[in-house]
Structure formats: C-alpha cells, structure tokens
Amino acid sequence: MTSLSPYADMSPVIQTAYRARAAAADLAPVPRAAKDDALLAVADALEVRTREIVEANAEDVARAREANTAESVIDRLTLTPERIRAIAADVRDVVALPDPVGEIVRGSTLPNGIDLRQVRVPLGVVGIIYEARPNVTVDAAALCLKSGNAVLLRGSSSAYASNTALVRVLRDAVGGAGLPADVIQLVPGESRESVTELMRARGLVDVLIPRGGASLIRTVVEQSTVPVIETGTGNCHVYVDAEADLDLAVEILVNSKAQRVSVCNSAETLLVHQDIADAFVPLALAALAEAGVTVHADERVMAYAGDSKATVVPATAEDWETEYLSHDIAAAVVDSLEGAVGHIRLWSSGHTEAIVTTSQRSARRFTQLVDSAAVAVNASTRFTDGGQFGFGAEIGISTQKLHARGPMGLPELTSTKYVVTGDGHTR
Amino acid sequence: MTSLSPYADMSPVIQTAYRARAAAADLAPVPRAAKDDALLAVADALEVRTREIVEANAEDVARAREANTAESVIDRLTLTPERIRAIAADVRDVVALPDPVGEIVRGSTLPNGIDLRQVRVPLGVVGIIYEARPNVTVDAAALCLKSGNAVLLRGSSSAYASNTALVRVLRDAVGGAGLPADVIQLVPGESRESVTELMRARGLVDVLIPRGGASLIRTVVEQSTVPVIETGTGNCHVYVDAEADLDLAVEILVNSKAQRVSVCNSAETLLVHQDIADAFVPLALAALAEAGVTVHADERVMAYAGDSKATVVPATAEDWETEYLSHDIAAAVVDSLEGAVGHIRLWSSGHTEAIVTTSQRSARRFTQLVDSAAVAVNASTRFTDGGQFGFGAEIGISTQKLHARGPMGLPELTSTKYVVTGDGHTR
Predict the structure, then answer these.
(1) Average pLDDT of chain B, as a whole number
(2) CA of B328 vs chain A CAs: smallest distance (Å)
(3) Which has the closest alpha carbon to A286: A299, A273, A298, A304?
(4) What's the pLDDT at B190?
(5) What DSSP designation does A326 have?
(6) What is the C-alpha to C-alpha distance for residues B200 and B197, in angstroms, rounded to an integer?
(7) Between 20 and 30 A from A38 (CA), which of A199, A356, B32, B231?
C-alpha cells in the first residue's frame, strides 16, 4: 500500500467497490469472444489448480467440524476434485449461452426522423451475498462476467479459505486472458461490518443479490440502500381442484413435495377442494406416507387421518407460512378455487403455485388470480428453475416484482440504455 | 369506524395500503375495455366538477400566498378550468394507449412438452411521493389504472386540499364505472410520519416512485424498505467532439440548455474537445450570452471569456455536479473523447449525455462508453422524454439501472409472471 493510491483513505470494502466500478466500465464494451475466452481459461484453471482449491477447502471443512457444524452444511461446503470438475463444466456451459449485451430490445424511427434504440447493457457492479456454498462463487462470477458485469463476492466466513483460493484462481485466469482481474473480487474481511458496508455502497454497487436463507435475505432487504433483488424463499402450494384426475394429482403432489425437499421450488402446502376431498385426501395421505412425508393437517384433513398409515399432526397458523425444506407438508381443505387463491394470497411467498385440474375454466381462473412468480397448471412446482426453463443457468429465483421475477438468467443481469441518433435535431 | 373492521387496529396509512392491496387483486384481471371506460368517466368527471376542484385549489393557493411561497411554485400549484381541461385531455390520451397487461413477453414449448409463457402483469400497489403539482395526482392515477395497478398518492401537504378534491372526483368516477374505488387513494395525513409509514410498508406496497427534487429522492432511497425507482435528477452533458459541425453544435447546445431550463433533460454542463476549442468556445459563449445563460467556466474556457459579451464566472468543483435548472451552465475543455467520458462518469447523474460529432468512430465510442439512461448523437438532450419517445405518457424518467431506465411508460409499471402448463409433468 502506498499513499499515492487514490483509494488510500477508504475502507478495504469501499476500495474493492471502486476497483470493481472501474473494471466494470472497461468490461462493458468487451465483445463476446473475449469474454468467452476468459471463461474457458477459468474452467481450465479450475481443473489445473484443483489441488490448491481442495487444500484451502480442507481448512474450512476442518474448522466447520471443530465447530460441530451439521453434516448437511459440511456436505455443501466440501469441494472434491469431482465437484470442481462439475463446476468447471458449468462454466463451459455459460460459454455456450448467448451474450445478452448489445441486444436491441426495442427500436424505431420517431416521426421527426430520430432513430431510437433501446440497447441491453451490463448492470455494472453486482454484489452477491451468500452462504457456505463455494460453488456459488464460481457460478456467480461466470454469469456476471458473461453479462459484462463486475462482481463483488461476499460468501460465508465459514468458506473464506475456499473462496479466497477460488477467487485467486478466477482472477489469474481472467487477467491471463487479457481482461481486468478486478471484475471478480472477494469482499475483504470476515466480519459483519463488511456486509454492512457493501449494503450501504449505493452509487458504487448497482445491485445486491442475497442468496440463502430467509433471515439473510430479510437483513439485506431491511438494511441495504443498494437496490436488492430478493431470491429464493419458496412457500409453494399445490391446489387440487374439484375436477381433477386423481392419479395425476397424486403424482404431481408427491413430485412437488418429495422429489427434492431442500429446494425453494418444492411444495410446502397442499390445498384440496372440498368436493374432491373424500376421494383425494385418503390417496394423498397414503402417497405422502409412502414418501416419508409428515402432514400438518387442518381439521378437515385431520378427519381422514384415522384411516391412513400416514403421520398426520394438527397444523397451527405457523404451518401455513413455513418453508419446511424437509419431509413435511401443510394441508387444508378449501371451499372453492377462490378459497385456495385467498389462502395463497395470504400465506405464499410468491414463488410457485400449482393447480391440478381437468377444467379449462379453473386453469384459466387460477392463473389469472394467483400473483406469484410462476403458476403451474398440471405440472410439478419443481419446474420453476432456470435450467428447466431453458435459460441455461440462473443466478437465483426472484420472488419480487421489480426488475426480474422468477428464474433469473443472463438477461436479468442487464439493464438497458437508449441511444438517440439524429442529425442536428432540436426541439 | 366500527370495531368490526379488520383494519381497526392499524394506522390510517397501513389501512390504506391494505385496501389498495385488495383492490389491486380485483383490478389485475380486469380487461382493457373496462379500464378505458373508467378512464373516460374520470376525464368527464374532471370537466363536470371543475368548479369543486378549483375552489379546493384556491384554499391551497391562499395558504401558499400567506406563507410567501415563490411565484413559480404557486404557478405549478394553481389549477384553472383551462388547466383542468388539459389534464382531462391527457387522461383521454391514456385511453388510446395499448394495455400492457397480458402481453406475452416470451413463450416457448420446452423439450419435455411443457408450454412456458412469460406474461405481463400489473406490479400491484404503486406509491407515488411528489411535490406541489396537482396534475401529477391525475396523471399518476390514470397511468396506474390503465396498467392495472392500485395507486397510493402522497402529494405535498401544500396541495392537500386540491389533491383531496381531485381524488374524490377520481374515486367517484372509477366507482361509478364499476371498478373498485380503492385503486386510487390519497395517503391520509399531512405529516412526515405518513411518508415514513409508506416507505416501510414492504410487502404491502410493491414500489415507490418519488417524483420531485433531489433531496426528496435521496430521503426516499435512504429510508425506504419498499423497492424504489429513482427518477428525474438530470445533470446532463453536451460534448462537442474534435470533429463537429460548429453551427449544428451551437444549435444543439443552446436547445439542450435553454429551450426549457427547469426540466431534468436540460443540459447542465458543456464539454469541448481541446482541438476545436479555439473555433467553438467563442461561438458557444456568444450564443449562450444571447440566450441569457451564465457560464461557469474552467480555466481553459475562461481564457476565451475576455473576447465575449457573455457572463462567464469561474467554476468550482461544485459546479460539475450541480443540476442548475436555471439559465446557468458549467463548461470545460477536455483533452479527448475519453476525457469527456471520464468527466461524465465522475459527475453525471446518469440521465442523458449528448455528443456532437461528424465522426462515426467518435459517435460509436461515446455511445459505447457512456453509461447513462440515454445517449444522444447529434440531437438535443431534450428528447429524453416519454412523449418524445412515442410512449404516449410517462410516470417519470428513471436514472437507476434496475427494473426501468430512462422514460417510464405503461410497460414499466408492470411485472411478469411465468405460466407453466403441462399435462401431468413431473421431474
């Protein structure tokens, strides 16, 4: 450090943000081929330097074990050569995706002869705040680089050694490919204050994307002056309509709930129309029991529990708003489609709701009335996913309405600018 | 008020927001024809009940006079029968605009046969915080209604009587046309606390749009947990390149600065390439003098001041970041196009920057490197405007990158949802 640096009297976090800003300005006009070359260099470097990464990761894992961290968390934290190969493969998949930058979103010649073009441009500096999943470090960096953005990575302090090693490898590769290494930076420091500084860096950071649990996201939303995109909280519902194919309803229910319970697009509440409850609820309880799912039932569902081998417990109000992420589901009987919609409006996190119905009218009404990022008709909630939607990759699933809603791919990491071309036009 | 109301123990502002939320859910699926009928009823009611509105406005004007308010502010506050007719005509113009709701933004059939549709939907509840311009009350309400949103209006307390009368007329007309009157509501109370409550109503209010001066916008950005769209601060630049048609440069400069000085898309800084300074600066100073503009000059522009009749004063650092909104302009000579871009990156509010050049290379480079909502080539900065861009109307001009950037028309008042249709699809 020398006092000649223009950043000398700034905190390390703000220095990082200024460097990112300068690097972002340089990266914005870089064409696709140069960005793809850098991404290929990143993928190669991850494989070549696997040992260095695994060794750093071992430090984090050892610390986590000493701290008696849950085995599931340690599993997510752990990097193996095989996992690093998979991460490198994901980076190569990003290379194959089209570059959103430069797309003409809208264009016309105005009546006065001015040519108006709305052009897609990078957002600038993207901050990602996330938990102990080192794969997010590489994923986020690759998607931001491809979309022309600089990224500030603030992972969990429990993965600091892993992230430090990964970012070193990424920066070396990007710099070696002739792009500014400062487009990828780890936010320095393991303290809470570094997160706070990042959240207050409005004007330097263009957007913050928190990825992780509900409490992390709530903190960022409450405290950030930088614009935030909320992601990932999924209290998803499956509604079985009065007219429904029962076998198909059971399949969609079990798939939505149990195909993978730890993800945001898994179902957390079952709603059943009263006219079909006698026929459907016993089937549903049996199938859920077979899948190892505990049912948190309202009184009307409870009435069917006696006949079944299912684990059924009485629901409390809290169950309706819980994102279990486990082998649990809340269940209620509703009087009507509108009753289901009312329940969803009250309790849903706005991620994904599914209807199972044979009625065209019900399908149309449900999709009109439900206000969530995704509404599924006769399909599992598990399809709300950037990969499933064909976006190739996702930086998260937005549950807010501003800027982006639902799975966010590369275009969601961009903004636009208007280019107004005349030949001396005045008003 | 009765204790039976579900809102009984909430503050008046939060009650208003809950009512807006319920009304927004009812409005969302309403088709265009019904919304247009309500807007026509609004326009008619404004004309029929002009007297009632003018009388209420007279109270606000009298209060403003007693408080020795500036004449320009009183002018903006004043409603006359003629101005109300113009406001009603603007509402009829909104009727003619296409309805953004229901547009399929993106659609495809996925490899597994699922039909995926990204459909445009209303944002929900839009809060507008604005100053003493009662026309904004009607403009904002009309644009929100057309785009299927409920609106919460929080105008200046100095226009409270006018806004109360206007909102009464609007609600009567909307209710009379069969839509929920609660889609248009004035935020109750004239105190600062009512603004604070609105800013903290995350989950009830989907977006806040502050319209007004820089300090209002800064306050909302700093304190709001509701997502905000920043609008309207315009420190716009005109850059005259080394290769430029001098007459055309003078015309664009004078038009950008002086055609209307009080608006956000007027120019506030002139940057001149050093190679053309000898030829251009004297012409510019003469033309600006003729337009009554005071020039705040850096040393290199100052060197030309002796020969001119212009009012030229030395610039301080503050001048580079000032949005004058008056007959003033800052002016500097720069070494290169990159120097102009650097100056703009440092000081611009990101609204609109113009280049005057005959060089295709300079035009291309400037539009690539400048990161603002609009970049004009050989055209006045004054064209950055929803009306000029052909959007028919605008709710404001966003200077942020998230969600919307530049003039915001009806589509910018919407979000999207994904509709996922299968026939029993599971993963």
Answers:
(1) 94
(2) 19
(3) A304
(4) 77
(5) S
(6) 5
(7) A199
Residue pair B372/A417 in contact (Cβ under 8 Å)? The answer is yes
Query: Looking only at Cα atoms, what is the longest distance across chain A?
Result: 82
Query: Where does residue B147 fall: left (phi above 0), alpha (psi -120 to 50 degrees), or beta otherwise?
Result: alpha
CB pairs under 8 A between A and B: 205
Gap between the Cα atoms of B364 and B359, Å rounded: 9
Q: Residue B73: which region, alpha, beta or left (left: phi > 0; alpha: psi -120 to 50)?
A: alpha
SS3 breakdown of chain A: % helix, strand, coil, rounded to 5? 45, 20, 35
Q: Determine contact, residues A243/A358, Cβ cutoff 8 Å.
A: yes
Measure in Å the smallest separation between the Cα of A25 and chain B Cα atoms: 7
Contact flag A402-B229 (C-beta cutoff 8 Å): yes
State whether A390 and B111 contact (CB < 8 Å): yes
What lies within 8 Å, CB to CB, of A335 at 6+ separation is A273, A274
Per-residue pLDDT of chain A (427 residues; tens, 9 = 90+): 344 455 667 899 999 999 999 999 999 999 999 999 999 999 999 999 999 999 999 999 999 999 999 998 999 999 999 999 999 999 999 999 999 999 999 999 999 999 999 999 999 999 999 988 999 999 999 999 999 999 999 999 999 999 999 999 999 999 999 999 999 999 987 788 889 999 999 889 999 999 887 888 888 988 898 999 988 789 999 999 999 999 999 999 999 999 999 899 999 999 999 999 999 999 999 999 999 999 999 999 999 998 667 799 999 999 999 999 999 999 999 999 999 999 999 999 999 999 999 999 999 999 999 999 999 999 999 999 999 999 988 899 999 999 999 999 999 999 999 999 999 999 9
pLDDT of A1 reads 36
Q: Count CB-CB contacts under 10 A for residue A359.
A: 15
Nearest to B371 by CA among B392, B342, B330, B404: B342
Q: Are B189 and B213 in contact (CB under 8 A)?
A: no
Q: How close is the nearest chain A Cα to the Cα of B56, in Å?
A: 36
Go through A113-147 and write b for each residue having 16 or more CB atoms within 10 A of its CB, e for each that does not. ebebbbbbbbbbbbbbbbbbbbbbbbbbbbbbbbb
User: E strand or H helix at A297, and its extent?
Assistant: strand A294-297
CB-closest option in B368, B380, B427 to A382? B427
| Whether A161 contacts A60, CB under 8 Å | yes
Tokens representing residue B238 in the block: 């005109």
User: What φ, ψ does residue A155 adopt, rounded to 5°?
Assistant: -85, 180
Question: Which of A202, A368, A378 is opposite residue B423, by nearest beta carbon?
Answer: A378
Residue B403 and residue B413: Cα distance in Å, rounded?
Answer: 10
Confidence of residue B191 (pLDDT cuts 50, 70, 90): confident
Q: Sketch out chain A's domains with CATH numbers.
A: 12-230+406-421 (3.40.605.10), 236-388 (3.40.309.10)
Q: What is the pTM of this model?
A: 0.92
Q: Do B379 and A252 touch (CB under 8 A)?
A: no
Helix (H) or strand (E) holding A186, with range, is strand A184-186
pLDDT score for B219: 87
Residue of B nearest to A419 (CA): B375
Q: How many beta carbons lie within 10 A of that of residue A56, not counting itself?
A: 21
Distance from CA of B304 to the nearest CA of A (A): 25
Which DSSP letter does residue A381 get? G
Shortest CB distance from B379 goes to which of A202, A376, A421? A421
Tokens (6 digits) for B62: 């009298």
How large is the ipTM? 0.93
Check CB contact under 8 Å for A388 and B427.
Answer: yes
Three-class SS state of A415: strand
Contact B425 A380 (CB under 8 A): yes
pLDDT confidence tier of residue B186, bands split at 50, 70 and 90:
very high
